[in-house]
Structures are given as C-alpha cells and as structure tokens.
Amino acid sequence: MFFKNQRIGKYEIQDTIGSGGFGSVYLAKDIWIGKRVAIKVPHKQGENVEKLLQEPRMLAELNHPNIVSVITAEQINDVFFIVMEYVDGISLEQYLRQHKRLALDLALHWFERIIDAIAYAHGKNVLHRDIRPANILISSDNQVKLADLGTSRFLVSQHFASTRIGSPPYMAPEHFQGKATFQSDIYSFGVLMYECLTGRLPYFDRDPVRLAKIAREGAMVPPHRWNPEVPLELSQLICKAMHRMMGSRFADARALQAALRKVTLHTMKFSETAPQTAPPATGSQHLSQLVEEQVEPVKLSRRFKEVTSRELSDLFCWNCSRPVQRRSNHCPHCNVDLR
Fold this sequence. Notes:
By secondary structure, this protein is an alpha+beta fold. The protein folds into two domains: 7-85, Phosphorylase Kinase, domain 1; 89-273 and 296-315, Orthogonal Bundle (Transferase(Phosphotransferase), domain 1), CATH 1.10.510.10. It is 37% helix and 17% strand. The strands form four sheets. Strands 1-2-3-4-6-5 form a six-stranded antiparallel β-sheet, with helices on one face. The chain is globular, with a radius of gyration of 21 Å. It comes from Acanthopleuribacter pedis. This is Protein kinase. Keywords: ATP-binding, Kinase, Nucleotide-binding, Transferase.
C-alpha cells in the first residue's frame, strides 16, 4: 500500500518491515521530530473508523516496558494506520534460526520479562492469542518486547475468545476449538519456552486437524530430555504450563511468573555454589535417576514428529506464519525475506 520515500502526512516511509493476515507494517520517520516509528496499515480499510479504532484504543491501554507501545492512530487520504514504537532489532524467531536455542541464563532473563508483559496484559483483560517467537522482538540493546497484539482482544463479558486466530504449533487444545482463554496464552508461552530451550517444537504436524489431536493427547518429551542443561524444576514448570487440561495448568500468568522466579533464583544460587570442576559421574547418574523418578513416562503419539526451529522456518513463514515451500527465499503471502 505504501512505497519507499512516500510521504503520509508527517511520516516518510523508509522500508517495509513485513505483512501478515491483518495488515502491513512499515518503517517510517516522523520528519517533525526525526524519530523512527513503525506504521501498521490494516488490510480492511473500508470498515467504519470506530471499528478500526478498536485495536489502537485497546493497545493504548497497555503501558509496559516489554510491550511494543502504540503512539497514535491516523487517517490520511482515506488510509487508516496505526503509529507504533519501532524496535530496532530482530525477532526471537530470527534469533532461533541463527542460534538454534538460548543459553539457560539468557532464556530465564527473557522469559521473566515476557511473562511479566503477558501478566500485565491479562491484568488489563487483554488476551494476546498469538504468543510465538516471531512476535517477540529483541532490540539492539538486548531487551525483549511483546509485539503484534493485533490478534488480541478484550475478555470482559465473555470467558473466552470465540475464534481460532493464532499459529497452530503454539495453540492450546481449547484454542483449536475456538475457545481461547488467558490460560491459552500460558500454554503458548510454555511452547515458546520449550522451543527456546530445546531448539525444537514439542510436537508438530502440517495438518492443523492432526496437530489439534496431538495437542489434545498431550504426548511430548520433557525439555530436559532434549537439553540436559535445563533444570528438572524448569522442565516440570514448562510441562505444567503446556498441560492439555486447563485445570492442570497454572491458574494465571502471575502464578506462572512466581514459579518461574523461584526457578531463576534457585538456578542462580546453584550456579554460584557449583564447583568449577566437572562433577563426578556418580553425580550425573544420581541426577538422571532423580529425573526418572519425578517425571512420568511419556508415550509418544504415533503421529509425533521431531521438528527443530530450523525445520519449522522451512515450513512456515516466520512473519505471517502461513505455509511456504521448503527452502523458499521469500514468503509468497507477505513477501518477507526468509533467508
């Protein structure tokens, strides 16, 4: 809709950031104050302005250091757009494509900030519905920001959001049924933590129907089995966040945040007191035995297939999450660079 060097009011378009199912996002410069911003142009331009304003009004309620902020909304020459904070950096999805997985200390640091942002949004009755690595931005100064709340909605009068909007690999079983709740965001965050620490998804299938069935079965390998650096208590926390039954997950995001904080403190304390030399083999054997005693045996679904973050990016666009041909250089849907 916009092109490079085009002037829209006081904004000069500098580049295209990406395009998804709900709109296109551009990098622009506010020429009055010399500040770079992100401009989101919804695809549905013919709707009533009051309806178009629902998203920016909702997002304007959110004021958190780890949530991309909304600056204003404007309509110029019959084009409605939202002006948002520009985060100079890359997405967590892009980071995982380069590094496969996160180091434990960095992961815990980012996880705490992401869950605080999610809990804050939930406190404002805002359900995200699309928590995944592509929607976590990492700034040049190593800060994380929860982005793309265009799929979000208020949960006030209803107990759930009656749509299936979201990215299937990160959707909770009830989300596939069109009944997303705040605990569905907790589930998605659990999948995100799993992928960040193991470099792979807990389960995957290209067919959303089969994927929904696998999610309902809840069969997965605990993350510490893929990555021995993941503490048992963190592995159990992730499994609880991803439990197929909502009643067995954390009651809310603040409860998960408190549990994650305890894991972080315990991990830091253990790191400070751990010997500098490698532990004897007997210690490793004891830990392995302890893990086997505390984690229930997992029976894999016959449809279970290991999928790494690299393989996932070969199957779906990191920007719009729609299917792409393996090894494609550009997404045919949003034309974003996949390399």
